[in-house]
Each structure stands twice: as structure tokens, then as C-alpha cells.
Amino acid sequence: MGCPTVLLAAALLTLLAPGTGAPISRKASRNKLLLVSFDGFRWDYDQDVDTPNLDAMALDGVKARYMTPAFVTMTSPCHFTLVTGRYIENHGVVHNMFYNTTSKVKLPYHATLGIRTWWDNGSLPIWITAQKQGLRTGSFFYPGGNVTYQDTAVTLSEKEGVLHNYADEKAWRTNIDTVMRWFTEEGLDLVTLYFGEPDSTGHKYGPESQQRRDMVMQVDRTVGYLRDRIRSSGLEGSLNLVITSDHGMATVNKKAPDLVEFHKFPNFTFKDIAFELLDYGPSGMLVPKEGLLEKVYTALKGAHPRLHVYTKESFPASLRYANNPRITPLLMFSDPGYVIHGRLNVQFNNGEHGYHNEVMDMKTIFRAAGPSFKRGLEVEPFESVHVYELLCRLLGIVPEPNDGSLGVLLPTLRDPSPGPPSPRPPTPPSGSALLPRGWSPLVMGLSVATVLLAKVA
């Protein structure tokens, strides 16, 4: 066989190879994905309230007995674990508040949502990874969804305002309608949707209050509305729905005789402290002045039986939290039901989170339904760090390096084929002699074949 004939055969084989045009066929059959978070939805909130829509979703899909969040059990850190698959010490969003121990700047939660450097510090959320692999994505109020990562922004986004009313049920339905339009009219493949309840109500009234029960019923009505809108939008057979949360909620013992009050510790003084991040629930951080670390640590480590104080190096490695440059030399957390009061007693919530993630009140929910999921399956508890790999699998994208395992949630799928998706083929450089800009592999192959046929002739 002559050389031109061999080249011609190779060109034709390229055209007929199974991988040719694979991104096109894979995209055509790919299901869409909606990840919904109801902030502060404790694992057992559906047990003292009638929740017919959440119950129906469990029958139609998958339910976990409970899910264990990452530590520290706060909103921003735990939400970022869900969309990166990384423990908090690895993704670096270590607190709800931006802080700088040198400048002493501390910003509240809403301001921190817009600080790019707080979020974009090495880990890519799933919406950026999906976009880099050819998909279109959206973020509606989801923490971390309104900043750029490596100079890339989410395709479509909405950011909650400082005075946002978390409890407005009418607004919830409007937001769902917007998300449905993003899928049907804007062609999005992935949307992350966030609701600030029942967290806000749990903080204000406590997790055992009637107000919290009423809010859970509102959440359930919203799940019903969401699933109805999925059906009426024609997405029931092509959209996977995952509903979860960031953490649970515990009752604060506000009248305890042994409150954790730093300003009353006999051997401790704030004069020895260069930076403090206290009065934010049950966790705290301190930077002692130069040369005073051992003195401050000694004064605090036995100061209160409800307070657990560690140096950064001695913090429990199993919590996967302290091994990050943003963590201060001293950090601490209190027992369930207790919050940390610093210079003054300024915390008055009836419910709190931020406790050790093995505390049952910190556990949260996981529900999933759609064309990719089995029906009527209840799975054993798992860590939230594993959700990311499942989401990537549902989208057919290659995950970023992460701390999760696909095997943990793979049995929830109807087609639990092993192994991650294959990497997408690299895009040749612009103006390449092999594949000029805008040429598909099919066009390239036909062009080469035409040239070679002319030579053979």
C-alpha cells in the first residue's frame, strides 16, 4: 500500500473513530442539574412537621438518613465544601466573615460575599469547572457565586441584598420561576439556588420553636412548587434535583449559670491580644501579641469546662480545619448550647450553629430525585465533602482535585458505572495548521481526505 493510500486510510479512520464528535453527542444526552440549599435545615426538621413534598421526593428518589457537614459548621465554609469537594482547611473559606489579622479589618457576612480574594484562593467551584468544560451555569444567591475565579464569572447570577428578606415565600416562588427560565430559555446546564431559611428563623426563635416548624412547612410548600415548575417546564425527564443544606441548628442555653464569658476569666486579659474574632456563635480565633502565645494559651485552656481551646498545631486533625494559613495561632469552640462572649455579652440568638460536626444537632439533609437517581432509596449517613463528585458525575464533567470519593454516592444512581468521565480533548491553539480556528474534527477530516484523494488520483 502506497504512502498516500495509508494517509487516506488514517484520515477516514479518524472520521469513523468512536470518539469523533463525542462532546456533541454527550452534550445532547446530558441531563441538567439544580442544586438547592435550604440554609440551616437540621436533619430531623421533617420529623415534627408534616412535609408531604419532601416525603414524596424521597419516595421518588434518594434520601440520606442525615449528612455530616464539614467543620466549622458555618454557612459560607460549608456551602463552599459542597461545590468544591474540599475540606475547609483545603478550600480556605474558613469563616463567614472576611478578616485580616494584620490590618484588623473584619467584614460582616454580606460584605464578605463580594470579596473576591476571600473566595478565589485556589479552589474552583463546580460552576467554573463546568464552564471551562463547555457548559453554561448559574448561581442564584448561592454563597461564593458572585465573584470571579481565575478571572472567570458564572454565566448568570443573582446576589442577595444586605436587607434581603429571607422569609418572603412569594419571592421564593419568583426566584424559582427565574431559575426555570434560565434552564429553558438561557440554556443553562447547572444552577445553584440558595434560600436563607430555616436558618434565620432557627437563629431568632430557636430550633424547637413553633416559628421554626412553620418555616419548615413553608420550605416544604416551596419544594412542592419547585417540583411542579420542573414538570410544567418540561424538564422532569432531563433535570436532576438535589436538595441539601449546610448545617443544622442547636438551642442556645441563654440562661445557663456557666456562660462562656472571656471578660470574666480571672487569668486572661485582652491587653495580651493583637487580634480577636469572637462573639460569632460557638467558635473563636485569637492572635496573641508577640511572645505571649504560651501565656494566653495557658490562661485559656482550663478557663472554662465548656470551652475547648487549642493551638493551631494541636487542633484535632480529624476536623480538617486548622491546616490553613488563614487560621490563627489560637482557636476554640464551645460545647453545644453555649456561645462565646468576648469583651461584652452581645449574642442573643435562641439557636446557633458552628459546633463540632459530630454533634447530632449539626447534621443536615440530603434529598435527590431525577432521571439519574434510583427511586425510594434511603442511604446511610455520609460527609458533605462527597457531594461534589456526585454533582460532577451528573454533569459529565471532570472534577477538580478534591477530598471526596465518587464511590460513596455512586450507588444512588441508576447507572453506577465505575470511574470518572474522560477528560475532554484539548483545544488546539488558534490558527493551528492542523485545525484552523472554528474547524470541527469532521470538517478537518473531510478536508484532509479530499486532498489525499486528489493525490491518489
Automatic annotation (TrEMBL):
Pro residues composition bias: residue spans: 417-429
EC annotation from Swiss-Prot or TrEMBL: 3.1.4.12
Key words, A-Z: Cell membrane, Glycoprotein, Hydrolase, Lipid metabolism, Membrane, Metal-binding, Signal, Transmembrane, Transmembrane helix, Zinc
Membrane topology of the entry: Single-pass type I membrane protein
Pfam families: Phosphodiest (PF01663)
Reaction catalysis annotation: 1-hexadecanoyl-sn-glycero-3-phosphocholine + H2O = 1-hexadecanoyl-sn-glycerol + phosphocholine + H(+); a 1-O-alkyl-2-acetyl-sn-glycero-3-phosphocholine + H2O = a 1-O-alkyl-2-acetyl-sn-glycerol + phosphocholine + H(+); 1-O-octadecyl-2-acetyl-sn-glycero-3-phosphocholine + H2O = 1-O-octadecyl-2-acetyl-sn-glycerol + phosphocholine + H(+); a sphingomyelin + H2O = phosphocholine + an N-acylsphing-4-enine + H(+)
Name of the protein in question: Ectonucleotide pyrophosphatase/phosphodiesterase family member 7
GO biological process: lipid metabolic process
Signal peptide range in chain numbering: 1-21
Source species of the chain: Suricata suricatta
Gene responsible for this protein: ENPP7
Single annotated GO MF: sphingomyelin phosphodiesterase activity
Cofactor(s) listed: Zn(2+)
